[in-house]
Amino acid sequence: MSPTALDPVAGHHDSFSLPVANGNGGVKVHATARRTPEGGLIKVESDSTKYEEEGIRAKYTDRGADVVKGADGKFTVKKTEKNYEFFTKSNVGKVGLMLVGLGGNNGTTVLATHLANKHQISWRTKDGLQQPNYIGSVVRASTVRLGVDPETGKDVFVPISDMLPMVHPNDFVIGGWDISGVEMVQAMLRAKVLEWDLQRQLIPHMQGVKPLPSIYYPDFIAANQADRADNLIPGDDKQSHLEHIRNDIRQFKADNDLDSVVVLWTANTERYADIIEGVNDTSDNLLKSIKESHEEVSPSTLFAVASILEGVPFINGSPQNTFVPGCIELAEKHQTFIGGDDFKSGQTKVKSVLAEFLVNAGIKPLSISSYNHLGNNDGKNLSSHRQFRSKEISKSSVVDDMVAANHVLYKTASELTAESGEVTKKGEHPDHIVVIKHVPAVGDSKRAIDEYYSELLMGGRNVMNIFNECEDSLLATPLIFDLAILAELLTRVQYKSLDNGDGEYKPLYSILSLLSYMLKAPLVKPGTDVVNSLNRQRNALEQFLKACLGLEHTNDLLLDTRIW
């Protein structure tokens, strides 16, 4: 049984319902946990936006530019317009969230945060009474500029959660799997993330709850995890394991009377799987390899395939290459949603902002050196070289697109080839190293140290050092809620082209690149460029939510303040 199914929430299961009485003396709800007023906070008055009983229908014009470089090196720019209609179903329904790694630091913190907010459990710290909240969630704790108040001329901002009908995190039904059979109370105590007074009050809500058995293939995670692996689906038959996971998803959905489910991997980082022709390069080959229990089919890929075949979104929160080519092709065939890879919570998020700032300021980073140490089980697993290599790859690519965007500072591959006479596939790039060490004493409190060494005017040099100390799971948990909330929302959004005469609505493309803001190594549609710029990722998400309301993206031109 899922832990939150023990005490189902009454009433509607979406953010457009009224708060349920909590029986806790009318304790004030934190702003990040408030519910949207019934009927929604926003109503767009426009011929292009229609509110219907089933949902919101909105027309949107996507404006862009085609740029062609001539033989003389000059550019010709042609403005483009593509017209679409979006339909967003307004009925959220009852949503399940299944975590792979439920008994880990992230999983226990997700469940504890959900229960504390749902039951309005406050706790004492040395600084006083602490209120439960969803601080750190982009969806719940950040705002979007909606427009301007015509009377005051002031900008109007609204929470992202109020833009469209979204599931409230209090309403998730949470369950999942773990290779460790420790009950959730002991798992929470083992994690040592939350204050004791909060843990003490959560114990009655978690008592007797245990994760479902999971898949354990020792070759994919560090050997030091073997002592935790006591809650396993029996046998070595990967086809049998696949069917077991699929049945778990179906059973969880049926037992809890759910309308939809999101599956999210927050378990150990795996080693990279080898991409082998005939094994995992196509969907048919991947399914065949699962039947044959091929050694290069990882646990995370099995969970992804199970989710795809069950028609539920699967999000990978770790850095390994879960989505081998065959897995992506399978998602495309079934038009099921996938997203990844690797939660972007601390050091990498700061790096994507600072590197973009330096390059856009015309300053040339020559090297970026990143060092981390942490003491939780994630750090322990990453102390193994093959698992660390997965993390190193996801962390190292974060500045690539920002560097490639500035060919004034950084020479292109063709320029380097012309200079050296040797074929160069990659353009000039800062030296970039990543180090991660396991230091048990610091627990979940991660230390991240970065040095940015850059070139300035007339051969000058600049060194910037950043020291960041943070609670790893308290940064990752809000991202897990965000990823699940947005993934569920995107299952209810359909579109059609008005230029091509499409009669039927289609679902969005299978790879949910709109989730990139929360992920270190964003998975994107094959053949398209990865965008790592945090600012561009955030703008894309905001613009899409506005497009679903038929609104133009509000830019910072502020033309009326710059003309007579």
List the topology elements.
Layout: E1 49-51, E2 55-69, E3 75-89, E4 95-100, H1 105-118, E5 123-125, E6 128-130, H2 138-141, E7 143-148, E8 155-159, E9 173-177, H3 184-191, H4 196-206, H5 238-255, E10 260-265, H6 283-291, H7 299-310, E11 314-316, H8 325-334, E12 338-339, H9 347-360, E13 364-374, H10 377-382, H11 385-396, H12 400-404, H13 413-420, E14 431-438, E15 445-455, E16 461-471, H14 472-491, E17 493-497, E18 506-507, H15 534-547
Parallel strand pairs: 4-9, 4-10, 10-11, 11-12, 13-14
Antiparallel strand pairs: 1-2, 2-3, 3-17, 5-6, 7-8, 13-15, 15-16, 17-18
User: In the CATH scheme, what's the topology name of the largest domain?
Assistant: Rossmann fold
Helix content: 25-40%
How many helices does DSSP assign?
A: 15
Q: Radius of gyration over alpha carbons?
A: 24 Å
CATH domain class name of the largest domain: Alpha Beta
Summarize model confidence as the mean pLDDT.
Answer: 89
Low-confidence stretches: 5-25
Largest beta-sheet characterization: 5 strands, antiparallel
Q: Looking at this structure, what is the CATH superfamily of the largest domain?
A: NAD(P)-binding Rossmann-like Domain
Number of strands: 18
Domain module tally? 2
Record the strand order, biggest sheet.
1-2-3-17-18
| Separation of the first and last Cα atoms | 66 Å
How would you sum up the global shape?
globular
CATH architecture of the largest domain: 3-Layer(aba) Sandwich
Provide the β-strand percentage band.
Answer: 15-25%
Return the structural class. Answer: alpha/beta
Summarize the structure in short:
The protein has 564 residues and is α/β, with parallel strands linked by helices.
